[in-house]
Design brief:
Layout: H1 2-11, E1 24-27, H2 33-42, E2 47-52, H3 64-67, E3 71-75, H4 81-92, E4 96-99, H5 105-108, H6 113-119, E5 124-127, H7 144-150, H8 169-192, E6 196-199, H9 202-209, E7 215-216, E8 230-234, E9 240-244, H10 248-257, H11 261-265, H12 271-276, H13 278-292, H14 297-306, E10 311-313, H15 317-322, H16 325-329, E11 332-337, E12 341-346, E13 351-352, H17 370-378, H18 388-391, E14 408-412, H19 417-427, E15 431-436, H20 448-454, E16 458-462, H21 468-477, E17 483-486, H22 492-496, H23 500-506, E18 511-516, H24 531-538, H25 540-550, E19 556-558, H26 566-589, E20 593-598, H27 599-606, E21 613-614, E22 628-630, E23 633-638, E24 641-646, H28 652-659, H29 667-672, H30 676-684, E25 689-692, H31 705-708, E26 712-717, E27 721-726, E28 731-732, H32 750-757
Parallel strand pairs: 1-2, 1-4, 2-3, 4-5, 5-6, 14-15, 14-17, 15-16, 17-18, 18-20
Antiparallel strand pairs: 6-28, 7-27, 8-9, 8-19, 9-10, 11-12, 12-21, 13-20, 22-23, 23-24, 24-25, 26-27
Helix pairs in contact: 2-8, 8-9, 8-26, 19-26, 24-27, 26-27
Amino acid sequence: MAERASAQERVWSGTGDGPLAGIRVVDFGQYVAGPLLAMLLADQGADVVRVDPRGGPRWDSPVNAVLFRGRRNMVLDLADPADRARADTLIATADVVIENFRPGVADRLGIGPAASLGRNPGLVYVSMPGFAANDPRADVPGWDGVVMAATGAYFVPEIEGPAFSALPLASVFAAAEAAVAVMGGLIARDRDGLGQHIEMPLFNALFEAGGAGVRMERSTQPFKYGDLVLAWFRASDGRFVALGSAWFRHLEWFVRAAGCEAWIDEGLVDYDRMMTDHDAVEEVRRRLVELFAQRTALEWETMGRANGCSLAMVRSLAEWLDEDHPVVAGTLVDAHDPDLGRVRVPGKAVRLSTAPDHIASPRRGPGADDAELRAALDDVLVDDLPSASASAPAEAAPTSPPPLAGVRILDFTRVAAAPTATKLLAQHGADVIKVDTDPSNRAMVHEPIGHDVVNRGKRSIRLDLGDPADREVLAVLLPTADAVVSNFTLDVDRRLGIDEPTVRAMVPDVVYTYLNAYGRRGPWAHARGYADLLNCVTGIAERTIGDRHIDSGHPMLAVDRPRWPFTDYAAGAIGAFATMLGLFHRGRTGAGSFGETSLEHAATLEQIVYALGYEDRDIAEPRGDAPGWSPLQRLYVTSDGAVFVGARPDQADRLLDALGVEAFDDLPAAFAARPTDEVVDALRALDVGVHRAEPPGTLIAEGGIGATIGALVEDHSEANGRVVMPGPVARLSRTPLVPGALAAPFGAHSEEIRAELGVD
C-alpha cells in the first residue's frame, strides 16, 4: 500500500474539500450522463481528472461550463500505446472510473471493467450505457431521446400520440442513481477492501423513475375525479397561476384565504364529494377561473404562500434564473467561466454541513492540465503499481451483503420525493423504519399504487407524536438510528420534536437528511410545494406547454403534458445521495452531519443543459409542440406509430438515403409513409439510434422488455393478488441491491418494532 500511496501522490492533487476529499475519479464520460455524475462527485470534494479524446469533448455546448467544473482535464488517444499506458496508470491509482460507452466499447479500448479491476481490485468502476449489456438493444446508440422513447417518457394520457420533452431526463436520472450507487460501492469497499463493477443503464434508470407503473392482478384503487389535478388559472395581468391541489387541504386553505368560505359552507369543497362527483369538480373550476381573474399572478402567489397554500406564479426558466430566492437558497450560484465570463449556474445538488457551499473551481479547457498530468503519469513506473495478485484473489470477488447492511434509517417522510430516497436506501440494504405520524394518512401517499412503489422494503411503526406515551417510544427508537430522513415543512418538524438539533442532542453522530420544496434558506423556504408546482416555478412546465397554449387566451389550462413524476424521483435520488455521503463521512471520521436538498434543486438539475445564464446567452431550447432538438434528433410519426431518431451529424447522408429523400424537410413525410418496424430495422442497420415511442404500459406487460432484462420484481398481495413493478436499477456486481418486500400497510410492524425496543 505504501507503493500505491506514492504513485497516487505523484498523479493526484488530493486538495478537495468535502466528504469525498481524497477520493480520486477518472471521467471518460461524454455528453451528459457521465460528466454529470463526475460533477456530482467533484462538487463533494472528489479529485476528478477528465479524459477527452483528441479533438476534445464530443459535445461542444455552453452546458460544459457546468458539467466540466471542478476537475482537471487531459487528452489521451487510447489507440496510442503510450497514451494507453497513461490511462492504465490513471485507472490503477484511482478510486472511481466513469464511462458511458455502449457495452463492450470500453473493453475494446482496453479500459473495460474486467481489465481495470484486474489492475486495481479496489476500484469502483461505473458503466453508464444507454441500454444494459443483457438488453437485446445493447448496441443501439443510447441518445437521451432514444432512451426516453423506449421508456414511454414521451406519452401522456390526455393527448394522442407522443409529445417531445427537451430535457435529457435519461441522463439526469442515470447520473443521480449512479451517484447513490458509487457511494454504496465506496462504503462497501471501506468495509471489506474490494471494489466492484456498477452498471447503471440510462434505460433502467428512467424505466423506474418515469413511473413505468405497477401491474396488479386486481386493483383496489378507486376511480376518482379528484384534486383538480394541476391547473393553471389566468390572472388579471394575463399571467398564469398554478394551483397545485395535490392534497385537498391546500384547496380548502386557499378558499378560506381568498375569502370564499361560502364554498365550504355550501358543501362544495368537500374531500369525499370531490373524489367522486365530477360536477362538483367542474363547478369549483368554474368559480376558480372567475376568482383568479381578480388579481395579478404575483399577488395570488404572495397571498398563497402567506397562507400555506400550494400555489405559485408560472415562470419561465429565464425568469427563474433571475429570481433572488434560488440564489439565496444556493440552488443557483454565480461563477466565472473562462469562455462565457460571469455565469449563473446550478449550485451543488446536495448541501452538507461538512463541506463548503462554494463550487471548487470553474471548468478548464480540454487538455488544460495535459502537460502536468502526462509528466506525473510518466513518472510512475509500472513497478510502482500494485498487481492484482498482491491485493486480491485473481478470481471474481465473492458476493457480499449490500452496502448498508446493518445500518438503521428512520423515515419521517411523506408523499413521494423523500419516501423515494429512503426506498433507495432500503435497496442498498438499510433497515428503514417508516414512522407514520399522521393518523389519517391523508398527508401520505395514500393511493395503493404510489404506496407500493415508494414504501417497499421498509418496516413501519405508527406513532402519534402528540401522545406522551408514543413520544416515549420515539425517545427509545431515535438512539438506535444511524440516519434520519425528514421532509416536513420547516418548523413542523421542530413542533413534532424530530428536527435536526433535537435529534442530534439525543444522537450526536446521526446523519440527518432534510428534503423540502424550496430549501432551508431564502424568502420561500417556509413555502409549501409539490413536484408539479416546482415544475411550474422553475420553468419546466412553461417550456413544455409552449407559447401557443400560453397565448391562447383560455382562462384555465389543465396541465399534465408531459407526465411529470420525474421531479419527485429526482429529488428522492439526490436525497439518497445526501444520506450516503453522510454515512460515508461518518464511517471514515465517526462524525455525524446534516445534509439537505429540495424539489427546487431537482427541478433545476433536470434542466441542467439549459439552466445557465450569461451575457448574450445563446442556447436553443425546444418549446411546446417542437418534435425534437433537430432533424437528426427528433420524434417522427410513422404509418402506425412514432419513433425517435438519434443520429450523429456524420450520419446525415445515410439517414436521408435510407428514407429515399434528399433534404431534411422531406423526412416527416418519408417516415409517415413507412411502418415503425421497417424504419427501426433500416436505421439500426446503419448504426443510427432509433426506437419506437413506447406507451408506458408495454414496459411492464407480460413478456415485455422489463421482464426480458430482469428489471421487474413480482410479489403477491392479499388485496391485489399478483403485483409487478420495477425493481432496483443499479447493478452492483459484488454487493447486489435488494428489492425488499412489498410495502405493508402503515404501522404494520408496530408491535414487532416495539418488541425489539423493549417497550410496551
